Amino acid sequence: MLKPLKHSLLALSLIFTSGAIADEVKVAVAANFTAPMQAIAPAFEKATGHKLVASFGATGQFYAQISNGAPFDVLLAADDTTPARLEREVATVPGSRFTYAIGSLVLWSADASYLDGTDAVLKAGQFRHLSIANPKAAPYGLAAMQVLDKLGLSEAVKAKLVEGQNITQAHQFVSTGNAELGFVALSQVYKDGKLGSGSAWIVPDTMYDPIKQDAVILKQGADNPAAAALVEYLQSAEATRVIESFGYKLP
């Protein structure tokens, strides 16, 4: 009888031990980084034993939620200004902010024959609807407006713009055919050096301000080992390989 009891105690000990070292990190993730994070999350959990719970959305909306007490441990923003602002507002862990990716903008159509790798269709106005993310809330939307301004097309396309709340919705408008083309994040349509579908013009990065995407540990995550582990993992060779595979540049 003693032997099974010993084994039961050992099993209980292992359960309690694993529970003690495993923590959960709640992450607010910029919508453009959805696919990379979905690839990174299981690898992070396997490597660290921690659990990752991700919410995806527009950086501007996350800022409002965090300011109102939303229980996030880490923010992966689509810009560098929002984490810096939270830093100034003493809402982050000092010294935890870093650039995890530099984003690229692409004009994309779900139709494989629609775009020829240039801005010709855009300049010719050969479309009824052009999708962009909300430029007030989403950095990729702001970058799209900078490109249109640089091309002198802002007024010409104004009536044709279809605005998504975030970059995910902007992409959905194009993928579902509600817009013939749209400015989206390269990471949404690109993997391992090629387009997943459709046709595109990869916008030269000289046409918009650099989309530096910063991550930061928020005050709630100050004493959370899983938050620190995630920030460390995002800078590992394993994670950066995934990030680059989706068309991001690294600092």
TrEMBL record:
Binding site for molybdate: T59, I167
Pfam families, per the entry: SBP_bac_11
GO biological process terms, semicolon-separated: molybdate ion transport
Organism of provenance: Ectopseudomonas toyotomiensis
Signal peptide: 1-22
Molecular functions per Gene Ontology: metal ion binding; molybdate ion binding; tungstate binding
Family, as annotated: Belongs to the bacterial solute-binding protein ModA family.
Keywords associated with the record: Metal-binding, Molybdenum, Signal, Tungsten
Entry keyword Metal-binding: yes
Quaternary context: The complex is composed of two ATP-binding proteins (ModC), two transmembrane proteins (ModB) and a solute-binding protein (ModA).
Name of the protein described by the UniProt record: Molybdate ABC transporter substrate-binding protein
